[in-house]
Amino acid sequence: MKSMPRQGKPAHPFKPRAGLQLVFGGAFASMTVGAWAQAPSAPDPASGATPVAAASAPPNVELPNIVVVGTTPLVGVGTPLEKVPANVQTIKGGQIDAQHPPTITDYLQKNVGSVDINDAQGNPSQADILYRGFTASPLLGTPQGLSVFLDGVRVNEPFGDVVNWDLIPQAAIQTMQIIPGSNPTFGLNTLGGAIAVQTKNGRSNPGGNVDVGFGSFGRKYAQIEQGGVIGDHLDYYFTANITNDNGWADHNSSRLRQAFGKIRYTDSDTTISVSMGGADNTLNGSQTIPRSFMDNFRQAYTFPDMNENQLGYLTINAEHYFTPNVQLSGNLYYRHYRNKNVSSNVNDDFDPNGDDADELTQAFNDQSVIVTDSYGASMQLTLLNKLFGKDNQLIVGAAGDFANSHFTQASQAAEFTDSRATIGTGPFVPDTDAKTRNENWGIYFENTFSFTEQWSMTLAGRYNWAKATIGDESGVQPLLDGNHTFSRFNPAIGFNWNPTPWFTAYATYNEGMRSPTAIELACADPNAPCSLSNDFIADPDLKPVISKTFEIGARGRIGAHTQWSAAAYSTTLTDEIQFVSSQGAASTLGYFQNVGKTRRQGFELAGRTQWGALSVAASYSYVNATYRSTWTKSSASNSSADDDGNITVHSGDRIPGIPANTVELRLDYNVFPQWNVGTNMTYRSNIFARGDENNQDVNGSVAGYFLIDLDTTYNVTKQFQVYATVKNLLNKRYANFAILGENFFNGPNHTFNGADTVNEQFLGVGAPRGVWVGMRYAWK
């Protein structure tokens, strides 16, 4: 008869020192601003009990908990934090709820170290996430350097590897873990890091609540949650939400509909969960605008620009303990994704003195549809044993991910109205009809060996094999057909030193890989530029992007109330892939190419302490993101371009869009037990515009900015809670994205004037001040 902790999970073989408590499952390493700042949070409206964080522990508690980190897509048993050679950050769903952010990305940029966002698409639900200078973006064609997982399933969409943050159910998040570096066990796209989301279950989240709110820009939302236990072995969880938002700018409204549910079986040895989810979202964007439009920064450059995202998915996760030291886990999934994009674009070839219809056409309405069916499975075996008489944990796993995508695109000649709306002047004409097939296989291992209680070593590696097949469905573009295969073994090694329970130091080296996407492979010929996300024809293979990361760091505690962490890192990419515009940076016409080496290196510091009812958390991150090769790029809107519209990018030039300095500060104060007041203060330093890769454009860089947000929660009763949030308290006008381009609207009141264009810096402007109020009623 074996002795099991709760939910059948065995004691971990890495022995805790006397006085240490072992924490399993969702209790991950937490070094984030947001996670630390919630210690004095107000009572939970369902129970009336005030959560007690580690910093609030009684004075007689002398040693910290052992927390367990998931270092593979399938969490499994996990690894004690003291043996993880990385500056892992984890946030919990309750910490997100406490600040009532409108989007996941908004929370991440205010509370997670080394995270920034940009508003390139002009819609808050379509922001890019940048972590250590690497991107997870919903914009097709953006080089994706982060892998994202939901319950062990990779959610980088197979066609373009994009990440649609609006499709992740925010209310269902139990934990969100940010793993830095090129951790090979997470597979493709893990160049700069991985983000792993685990969803709630009914046993850990019993009871329910309904949450409604409204406020600035016509935003209205409603959400419901319910979880519970059925008998001894079953539990369930469900959440659904709707949001309508008119948008803070012209033509950037949002309509979101999400639902998620899970049913789970558990006994002393086995856990099986079946989860389903879906979303139906319509997101309008206002694009970037030229600096000359800043007299009214809410206006759109052109419109309409709309994304419709629809998703349905089914995931089955299971784990079984054959013995307390042998665990097998796995999953199966299916996802059906549909994206429809309608965009208005200036005709880059417009010539008022032209001789043919194409040159006299002012604009085009482009319409594309992507339909993807993806499915896959993974399996992972964890062995907790002794090796040479020492504690050892071995994880071996395999995964297969497959996807079939159908891409169609059509364009329509159009003219501009005085308000810069595009009105079609003819029918939509099909441009591209293609199908793609993605096959990704991976075999990985991770072994953590303890030389002594103070020293441990982690060895890991993954062999990736990826195949992309592209086929023409129109019958008129046979050059589109192609097969592309990539494979590589990526290793990792790390060491941890724990001289006391209060201090950990580590060093690690790891490698990762990103294989070119179907759209990059089909649009790689400088002599045949294509339009994003429009026409493409087959071209020679691109090379895969390889990342190599070094990192050293330390973390620890000072007394019972203060925690800290520090890390320094350097990630070098070989054969980085960039989209090279053929008619200026703001043009959608261009091609993809390998541009040599780039490097992102820097350091990050974080700390947290608490004085009574006041909790203070702060982080600082520095990233020096530079090109390490010399290459030529077309950027005719750059003032330093030569007569052919080209610029030369040199080794040492800063990569556009990545701020060097980021500061985050979170304060939480319990005025009294029922009332909590919090504030986020953030600073981002200047950035260069895309198209200014040589850092020589006369416009220079875009200035940094400082923002203050406020939030407050008051528990009227044990069940009823009211709250309010204020974003951009000082109503600062700022931009977090920029691109160089040609402004075609220099007529009266910014009307179309294709005969008198001006090269300008286009800005992705941040939202002005907004205020929202809400209320939540909870029940057991």
UniProtKB/TrEMBL annotation:
Protein name, per record: Outer membrane receptor protein, mostly Fe transport
Stretch forming the signal peptide: 1-37
Organism: Candidatus Burkholderia verschuerenii
Family: Belongs to the TonB-dependent receptor family.
Annotated compartments: Cell outer membrane
Keyword NADP appears in the UniProt entry: no
BP GO annotations: siderophore transmembrane transport
The keyword Transmembrane belongs to this UniProt entry's keyword annotation: yes
Protein topology in the membrane: Multi-pass membrane protein
